[in-house]
Amino acid sequence: MTRTAFVTGASSGIGRATAVALAQSGFQLVVTGRRRERLEELAQQLTPTPVHILTFDVRDRAAVDAAVASLPAEFRDVDVLVNNAGGAHGLAPIQEGDPNDWDVMVDSNVKGLLNVSQAVLPGMKARRQGHIINIGSIAGHEVYANGNVYCASKAAVAALTKAMRIDLLPLHIRVAEVNPGAVETEFSEVRFKGDAARAAKVYEGFDPLKPEDIAEVIQFMVTRPANVHIAEVTIFAGAQGAATLIRRD
Ligand code: NDP
Ligand code: 8X3
């Protein structure tokens, strides 16, 4: 029987690459994001894999619930949930931080993950099977200058992943955390509010991770048999030794 993967934030970067990799492994897909045209383009690229598109903001709990409830019967049994949607907004010392950025990061990276998980979990619970991959970050395991609230939001993802793993154990649902280092995506453009030149500088002078590098690890994790649970993986770029320690030569 075809397995179903539900990937949030599939309109760009790591989520998009994960959808492609999971389609290659034979999954059918539910792909989500706010930019429908990007998701339609992805669905075209994935032909002939069956793809169902849901557009919602992960911060909007009612919209998340309505979108998941609207899934057609053939996509309702979600086997794998990849909680990937999110990102960083701003990079400033705490005393100069913009509270609107704080709201977006906490509401998306933490509460968004909870909203989507809560909407998808009843099906996994009823079937007593499921696999959830939460995209954390090295930033959730280290704190760097000016990273404050983004780092805190990803530290919350680390804690929630452990909590979910414990609470969902009796239900046969595996929960794992994937912590990327520096991956070249739209991440820095979003963080720097569209300043492409500043974003490009983040990846200058070294070979950063590509979204496909992370997708390949997720693909491996979710295709392990039920007796294997890879609980946590950190993936650095080859030139990276810590979140902000990067050899640029
Ligand atoms: P991108 O900006 O390229 O992709 C982010 C994705 O998340 C987009 O598809 C976007 O879709 C979606 N998204 C963001 N906010 C919302 C929202 N409120 N509601 C619905 N969808 C949303 O960045 P990445 O691929 O790099 O980021 C993916 C994840 O990886 C994030 O959680 C990020 O924190 C994490 N990460 C990234 C690293 C990096 O170096 N790139 C390193 C470590 C972790 P749309 O705009 O269409 O809604
Ligand atoms: C993204 C990686 O180190 O830029 O989460 O915060 S970092």
Structure report:
With 249 residues, the protein is an alpha/beta fold. The chain has one domain: 3-Layer(aba) Sandwich (Rossmann fold). Helices cover 43% and strands 17% of the residues. It has eight helices and nine strands. The strands form two sheets. The chain has a seven-stranded parallel β-sheet with strand order 3-2-1-4-5-6-7, with helices on both faces. Helix 3 runs parallel beside helix 4. The longest helix is centred in the middle third of the chain and has 29 residues. The mean pLDDT is 98. The site of NADPH dihydro-nicotinamide-adenine-dinucleotide phosphate (NDP) has 29 residues, from helix 1, helix 4 and helix 6.
Entry summary:
This protein is α/β, with parallel strands linked by helices and about 250 residues long. About 45% of the residues lie in helices and about 15% in strands. The protein has one domain: Rossmann fold, CATH 3.40.50.
